[in-house]
Amino acid sequence: MAKVGIFFGSSTGATREAAELLADEIKGAELIDMEEDFDGLDHFGEFDVLLIGSSTWGQGDPQRDWVDPLYELSNEQPDLGGKKVAFFGAGDQKTHGEHFVSALGKLHDLFTSLGAEAYGYTATEGFTYDFSLAEKGGKFCGLAFDNVNQEELTDVRISAWVSQLKAEMGL
Ligand SMILES: Cc1cc2nc3c(=O)[nH]c(=O)nc-3n(C[C@H](O)[C@H](O)[C@H](O)COP(=O)(O)O)c2cc1C
Q: Domains in the chain, please, with CATH?
């Protein structure tokens, strides 16, 4: 069975809750809080499948617990070839529609540049925003959700995404 690691950074709990739901629904998946549990770049090497979670802050930036790991990844350029990766994270399409969930796009670009293969793209329908770095070829490069404006939709979005990942990745 593929080993699944759910690596997440979350400041107010939205992305953490999603990560915990994912862990409930994906058998054997391990949760790694980037603030408390992350052991360094080799930690990614322990898993076949990486689910990478981050909310978006500042001007489309990943959540703060990702800053150092992303810097190290860019510098050290480890080979992530053969790994399957998918991205998820909270944002706010109304107040921050100029960079809605853009962190997912930045994470996607870095992990795929290191050889990981991205799964779990989702439709942008149902969201209203001006711009997002997470939009690739008309889809989000992962699971976007918005607990500020559409909290009632988040659980359904997560469940649908889990079904999609199971089918796409053979989990
Ligand atoms: C100062 C500030 C900046 C933010 N910037 C963005 C942004 O650029 N894009 C976005 O989609 N959401 C942005 N947000 C919204 C957060 O991503 C949102 O509140 C999210 O639910 C936080 O998730 P977390 O609790 O997992 O960290 C911002 C929020 C604040 C307070």
A: 25-134 (3.40.50.360)
Over the stretch 92-105, which tens digit does the pLDDT of each residue have?
Answer: 999 999 999 999 99
Residue nearest (by alpha carbon) to ligand 1 atom 29: 57
Cβ of 99 less than 6 Å from ligand 1: yes
Is the entire prediction scored with pTM above 0.90?
yes
Ligand 1, atom 5, residue with closest C-alpha: 57
Instruction: Express each pLDDT in 40-56 by its tens digit.
Output: 999 999 999 999 999 99
β-bridge mates for residue 6, sequence order: 31, 51
CA distances from 113 to 13, 86, 109, 117, 118 (A): 29, 14, 6, 9, 11
Alpha helices in the chain (DSSP H): 14-25, 42-45, 67-76, 102-113, 151-169
Distances (CA, A) of 167 to 36, 161, 162, 164, 171: 31, 10, 9, 5, 7
**How many distinct helices (H) and strands (E) make up the chain?**
5, 11
User: What residue owns the CA closest to ligand 1's atom 12?
Assistant: 91
